[in-house]
Amino acid sequence: MFEFWVAGLLSIGALFAVIAAVGILRMPDFYMRISATTKASTLGATFILAATALYFDDAAVTGKIIAIIVFVILTTPVAAHMIGRAAHRSGVPLWKESIRDDLAAAEHGPTAIKEPEES
């Protein structure tokens, strides 16, 4: 039964890793790729690390793994935000069908927001 839980957590983590890889391939622009891969890879790493903690069943290992999980959960979104902001400032274009650019609106005023075209 113990191995079942470890295998289940590893499988869920691997599934999220695959979802992150598919997100890189399927998303239309850089900013959506960052969003998809950050969320999926954080969840994947968390499940894989949880399976590792469960497998080793040692207080020292579990403590280190909990610290790693907290570090990943806290730093991954911040890093993705900073990479996205640097890309925006460098002029990496949005997807052609993007409706709003909230960062441009924050930096340059509300005139930077494209309103959706009515059909």
- Helix-residue proportion: over 70%
Mean pLDDT: 86
Oligomerization status of the protein chains: single chain
Radius of gyration: 19 Å
Order of helices and strands: HHHH
Description:
- The chain has four helices and no strands.
- The longest helix has 32 residues, at 59-90.
- By secondary structure, it is mainly alpha-helical.
- The chain has one domain.
- Helices cover 76% and strands 0% of the residues.
Secondary structure layout plus pairing:
Elements: H1 2-26, H2 30-56, H3 59-90, H4 102-108
Helix pairs in contact: 1-2, 2-3
Could you list some keywords that capture this structure?
single chain, 119 residues, mainly alpha, 4 helices, 76% helix, 0% strand, elongated
Structure at a glance:
By secondary structure, the chain is mainly alpha-helical.
